[in-house]
Amino acid sequence: MKTVSKLICTAGLVGMAATASAQVFSWTENASIPDGDLNGVTFVQPVSIAPGTRTVDVNSFRVYLNITGDPVGGNGDLFIYLRAPDGTIAQLVNRPGYTGSNSTGYQDNGLNVTLFDGTDPSRPAGYSDIHLYQTDPVYGGIPGNDGLTGIFKSDGRDVDPLSAGTAFDAAARTRSLSVFQGIDPAGDWSLFAADVSSGGNSKLNAWGLDFTPIPEPQSYAMAIGAGLMAFALYRRRMLKSA
Fold first, then answer.
1. Distance CA 145, CA 75 (A)
2. Per DSSP, which regions of the chain are E strands?
3. How confident is the model at residue 4 (pLDDT cuts 50, 70, 90)?
4. Among residues 133, 66, 138, which one has the least CA distance to residue 106?
5. What tens digit of pLDDT does each residue of 68-123 get?
6. What contacts 170, CB < 8 A, 6 or more positions away?
7. Contact criterion met (CB below 8 Å) for 73 and 108
8. Following DSSP, what letter does each residue of 146-195 receive, concatenated?
């Protein structure tokens, strides 16, 4: 029986390994974001893969952000975008909660989130827009809840962060992560972060990019099928030797 288990497990692992090749890059910054300063700060980091060997697929591309108050910040003040090696820009965060009816945005302190705009088989309805994260069940609906966590869609609103809240209400999400579809990820990626309103500093602890494909449901089925085939071959061999 131990031999059977080993065969099944080995076949399953091989099947899964073939469907998801990890491509994760992460960087620790521990740097303050200047308070009330539109000039912000830029972090540049390399994605060290051979040029021309792959392209970005929105269904397997995720961005990680880990930001805390320094010691107290307001998420509604944050303006953060990502620039790819070819110059393409996606608006990750643009003053969350800032709308025509909320002139300060959300005043939570910090976020530790994954931004993902693709299709996830485990979440058919998709994820919520980070600009309105307090309306998402993951948030819990508790104003002032610190340390937002979870998976959200990027903001994508190509709006001047000093615009009126009504401009955010009307803005289309034209700069979501989908703008990176098909580009070559090799080279330097730049993360720009600014705190556009005074009254509390934030700090970028770390950020990262993940190009790892999300396994489709059929991938799991293939892995199980491979395991069952291994079991059938073993059983056949045992019956012949009996």
1. 11
2. 24-33, 37-47, 62-69, 78-83, 89-94, 111-115, 148-152, 187-195, 202-210
3. very low
4. 133
5. 987 788 999 999 999 999 999 999 999 999 999 999 999 888 999 999 999 998 88
6. none
7. no
8. -SEEEEEB-------TTS-HHHHHH---TTSGGGGTT----EEEEEEEEE
